[in-house]
Design brief:
single chain; globular
């Protein structure tokens, strides 16, 4: 477009791609801004009245419809349980920063800082933003030495920092995600990640058997397709506001939201996936489904993730996780015997 109401940088500092469709985005935002205004008024009334942000049917419904940016940090902290953790150890973050630090951990983190959101003006042009990210990652690595630091954490912590504008808040939210919401995703063996990739594969087999069989026939491993979806929680995969709307629900409802998003993307693009005739085409198609037109329209997309996949009770995910863990243990035992 020759001109646009929107700049080439979004509100979080991410540069829009050269092929960004400003016209479609403006058409969407002209309606979505009205939705945002209504949501902001309702959240403001809750907060102004001093009503509790603790978990309830009302708060869950409000979270699913989107948390205004100005309130995100506070609501995420409350509904996820991170605020309770901070209250129990209010000095922990500063103690971790003031303590002794392992040089090898610090150096690995420093190496990853320039790689974190290279298309974001805040991380590219301000040492302060990178220094804050360094602090958050360093504190977490020394607080949770089982996980320490591994690639992927920088994207999550980096986005938390952009949204909350607070090192300490970002630290506590990172802690609740890694230790509670996504257990063992980031350990050296990444057992939790491997398990959930297997769970997603099984869910696709149950809900879309033709797609699952097609992927199997063409020999494309699910780990190749979805690892970044799980590790980065769709950051750098989906548009930023869509990612944050997913995170709104993730902090409230837990990791099953990741499965809902993944199943929605796959089911909406079922015909395109089935039309692929070789490994390479299928891999490219899985990249393209994250650019599905609906993902820009975050409000519509978030409504769809609670409809398109159908029923997805936590008990089903728990059973599939147990099954995946048992199967992997049996496979490892067989390899050991051989």
């Amino acid at each position: 477009m020759a001109s646009s109401y929107f700049s080439n940088v979004d509100e979080y500092g991410f540069e829009r791609p050269q092929n960004f469709d400003y016209q479609t985005y403006e058409e969407f935002m002209s309606e979505y801004l009205k939705v945002l205004a209504k949501r902001a008024q309702r959240w403001a009334r809750i907060i102004a009245a001093g009503k509790s942000l603790q978990r309830s049917i009302t708060i869950k419904r409000y979270v699913r419809k989107g948390i205004p940016g100005v309130y995100r940090g506070a609501v995420w902290m409350t509904v996820s349980g991170a605020e309770e953790l901070r209250t129990a150890s209010p000095e922990l973050y500063q103690i971790l920063l003031d303590g002794q630090h392992r040089r090898d951990v610090a150096e690995i983190i420093k190496t990853d800082l320039p790689r974190t959101f290279p298309d974001n003006i805040f991380y590219n042009n301000t040492e302060n933003q990178q220094h804050q990210l360094y602090n958050v990652l360093l504190a977490f690595a020394h607080q949770n030495q089982t996980v320490g630091y591994c690639q992927g954490l920088n994207y999550i912590a980096g986005l938390l920092l952009l949204v909350t504008k607070s090192e300490e808040t970002a630290f506590w939210l990172l802690k609740i995600l890694i230790e509670k919401t996504l257990p063992e995703y980031y350990t050296p063996t990444m057992d939790g990640l491997l398990t959930d990739i297997e769970v997603l594969s099984e869910l696709v087999r149950i809900k879309m058997p033709d797609v699952h069989q097609h992927v199997t026939n063409l020999g494309l491993p699910w780990a190749v397709i979805t690892t970044k979806w799980f590790i980065c929680l769709f950051a750098e995969v989906l548009p930023i506001e869509t990612t944050l709307r997913i995170w709104d629900c993730l902090f409230y409802e837990g990791s099953k939201i990741i499965f809902r998003v993944a199943l929605t993307l796959i089911k909406r693009n079922r015909e395109n996936l089935l039309s692929c005739r070789d490994f390479t085409a299928l891999a490219e198609c899985f990249k393209e489904i994250t650019r599905d037109s609906i993902v820009v329209q975050c409000h519509e997309f978030m409504q769809s993730i609670f409809k398109v996949p159908g029923s997805l009770p936590a008990s089903t995910i728990a059973k599939l996780r147990t099954k995946a863990i048992q199967q992997r243990a049996e496979e490892n035992q067989t390899k050991t015997v051989r």
